[in-house]
Amino acid sequence: MAKKTDITKAEGDLYLENLTKSFGDFTAVDDLSLQVPQGSFFALLGPSGCGKTTTLRMVSGLEDPTAGRIRIGDADITHEKPYKRPVNTVFQNYALFPHMTIWDNVAFGLKRRGIKDVKKQVDDALELIQLTQVAQRKPTQLSGGQQQRVALARAIVNRPAVLLLDEPLGALDLKLRRQMQLELKRIQTEVGLTFIHVTHDQEEAMTMADTVAVMNNGIIEQMGAPTQLYESPDTAFVANFLGQSNLFPATVVEVDGEDLVLEDPDGSFRMPKSRMGRNVSTDRGARVLVGVRPEKINIAALDAAAAGPADGNFVDGVVEATSFLGVSTQYEVRTPGGEIINVFAQNLDSQDLLPVASQVRLTWKPIHGFVLDGRQDIEAGVEIDPDALVVS
Amino acid sequence: MSIAAAIGDTIEDEPKPPPPSTNKGRKFTAYLLMLPGMLWLAIFFVIPLVALFMTSLQTPVPGGEVGQFQQTFSFSNYAETLTDDTYYIPLIRSFIYSGIATILALLIGYPLAYAIAFKGGKYRNLLLVMVIAPFFVSFILRTIAWRQILADEGPVVAVLRVIGVVGETGGIYPSAFAVIMGLTYNFLPFMTLPIYASLERVDPKLIEASGDLYAKPMTGFFKVTFPLSLPGVVAGTLLTFIPAAGDYVNAALLGRPSNTMIGNRIEYTFLSVNDYPTAAVLSFILMATILIMVLIYIRRVGTEDLV
User: Fold this and answer.
1) Is A384 within a domain?
2) Do A147 and A12 fall within a single domain?
3) DSSP A173
4) How far apart are CA A263 and CA A253, in angstroms?
5) Distance between CA A120 and CA A228 in Å, rounded?
6) What value of ipTM does the predicted structure carry?
7) Residues A72 and A215 in one domain
8) Which neighbouring-strand residues pair with A305?
9) Set of chain B residues whose Cβ sits within 8 Å of the Cβ of A60
10) Has residue A207 got a pLDDT over 70?
11) What's the CA gap between B241 and B67, in Å, rounded?
12) Model confidence band, residue B4 (pLDDT cutoffs 50, 70, 90)
């Protein structure tokens, strides 16, 4: 048990150990364990109702865990009162005190901790968010983006061991959100605090965070650097939730050295064993899901590609639909086996656009694909439009 | 002039007239809607007020009978009344009683409103109905009931005698205490409801935010919840204090002659002494004093700053 007096000054990595929270029969967070290194920008990403906000509220002390422990460094804060924790939150709708000026809002935390001379710290915080000029205004006189920054300053000024951000950009419009993402990242780098950012917006998580934990149904599906999650997803949920994936079922034929020989209705092909996700069985006849990102597939008219690449997997098909997106063109290609494969082709030369009904060959390097356990829902994490989920 | 040009002209001219007329129409509608209220106020408030003011300046007809007065402009009526201790003492007493009753109602009503707003859960509406329920019984009846409650044989005195607050033969009715209890009780809903309305609108996230920013629950209450409920507190205290200051039922039913309030004094002067000018003067002084106190109060609390 840590000494009580140390808790408000605790610092170090944040540990969640076997954390569980149940509301009646519903388990919002299920035996969750993770470590957030001090000074890192950590994102908890998941669809609404996945338990990410509940996790955050347990760290801030607004919810009491059903089981498990929360530590900051050596200090156990599991059941500590919110006002004693060295943790501050940027609330979803900012929760600025409407009866106080911006300056008083920012000074609130410092004053409650009995710090005498708060002027310099408050002024510095307002400077950090570039809002010195509105210090004497009330929150309602500010725009949404400005209120958002004030909420950030109000939390940061206390130099907490952990700063929690609960969908902080959810209420802003798209353009402002992009701007604030960069701003948040800048501020985090500048102050060097541990940021835990809860969001349902995968792009937001990937842009800002050093480490992203993808949550679903109260558990962490996968955790890692954004590139790692994107390039090597462990589960169908992660593959579909982070960006887009073409997933198609296949069966294991055999293991040949470092390669896995697989078979699907369109023929047999090879994938490196190093590209396997979690729990993939290599037994003969085992079902797997093969995934490849749409932008990693090369598309070419069949006659031009007839020679076929020396290395790589390929499948032939017919273009069913195209949509020109400016920077790229999206093709939907139907294979003889009946699969629909999405392809993003960069618009290097607009004359290369392939019309609907063209016979095409799709090729990709095996190293760009990934193999997942076939016993999971192929649709997991699909069709969750982040912007449709913005909570009021 | 070609036909096209002619049409063009009419098209250009036509849209102009309607806006002022609709505008006028709208204004007319607004006046029409205000008319009944205005008429009501004019007939039953402004005219009686003027009449009352004129009465307050009357003097007795020389050698006339009791209750016979003539219209003069004797402003000295005010000075004479204000310096007569049979009048100014009940006036001061009224403000002391209603002031204490207002503070008591606030001390009881605020926690009540807070509990209903934040802890009421699904019983919120039921609890609110219970706050209003006493209104279904007549004001006079409820006040008379307090006689029973506070009577020497009643439960309150019995308890007070046991714990020794009141002597073996002592009582609490009639007394100033009983009057203040009556006032507090009768005006409690007027205190509770506006405070509830204010508290109910306080975003619980703000209270969470104050805890997150190192405020202990008590500090959070005084720094965040209470300031945000001030509009309700101001409304509640005014709705309690103003009618309580002019009340005469509670003092008449629960007090001794030494507990008379200004309301009782006005009633007595008007109905028993038939000294209409003095009763009118007292009414005006009461009104003016309350008005001044309210203005000072509102200015000090500064409600216009609140969201």
Assistant:
1) no
2) yes
3) -
4) 7
5) 42
6) 0.82
7) yes
8) none
9) 212
10) yes
11) 33
12) very low
Total domains in the fold of chain A = 2
| Same structural domain, A125 and A191 | yes
Flag if B203 and A81 touch (Cβ within 8 Å).
no
CB neighbour list of residue A89: distance below 8 Å, 6 or more residues apart: A56, A60, A155, A163, A164, A165, A166, B209, B212
Q: How many CB pairs under 8 A join A and B?
A: 63
Given an 8 Å threshold on Cβ–Cβ distance, is B214 in contact with A95?
Answer: no
pLDDT in tens, A226-277: 999 999 999 999 999 998 899 989 999 988 888 888 988 878 888 888 888 8
Q: Which residue of A has its CA nearest to B219?
A: A112
Q: Which residue carries 């009846």 as its tokens? A: B141
Same domain as A368, residue A256? yes
Where is the domain boundary, A231, A258, A289?
Answer: A231
Q: Which two tokens stand for residue A377?
A: 């829902």
What would you report as the CA-atom Rg of chain A, rounded to the nearest whole angstrom? 25
Q: Which residue of B has its CA nearest to A90?
A: B209
The enclosing domain of A338 has a CATH number of 2.40.50.140
Task: Tell me, yes or no, whether A293 and A223 share the same domain.
Answer: no
Q: Closest Cα to residue B166, out of B183, B154, B182?
A: B154
Residue A35 bridge partners (DSSP): A15
Give the DSSP letter of residue A331. Answer: E
* Cβ contact A196:A59 at 8 Å: yes
Q: Which of B201, B207, B212 to mutate to test the interface with A (most CBs of A within 10 A)?
A: B212
pTM of the model: 0.80
Q: Each residue of B122-162: pLDDT tens digit?
A: 999 999 999 999 889 999 999 999 999 999 888 889 898 88
Structural domain boundaries, residue A335: 244-373
Which residue in the block uniquely carries the two structure tokens 């917006």?
A201
Question: What are B147's two structure tokens?
Answer: 């006689």
Q: Do A194 and A159 touch, CB atoms closer than 8 A? A: no
Angle between helices B155-162 and B139-150 (to 10 degrees): 30
Q: In one letter, which amino acid is B251?
A: A
Is pLDDT at B212 greater than 50 in this prediction? yes
Has residue B172 got a pLDDT over 70?
A: yes
CB contact under 8 A, B208 and A91: yes
Q: Which residues of A touch B306 (CB under 8 A)?
A: 99
pLDDT one-digit tens code per residue, A60-107: 999 999 999 999 998 999 999 999 999 999 998 899 999 999 999 999
Q: Where are the alpha helices (DSSP H) in B120-225?
A: 124-132, 139-150, 155-162, 176-200, 204-212, 217-220
Residue A18 located in a structural domain: yes
Ordered domains of chain B (ranges, CATH): 18-71 (no CATH), 79-301 (1.10.3720.10)
Could you give the CA distance from residue A343 to residue A248 in angstroms, rounded to a whole number? 14
Distance CA B152, CA B169 (A): 8
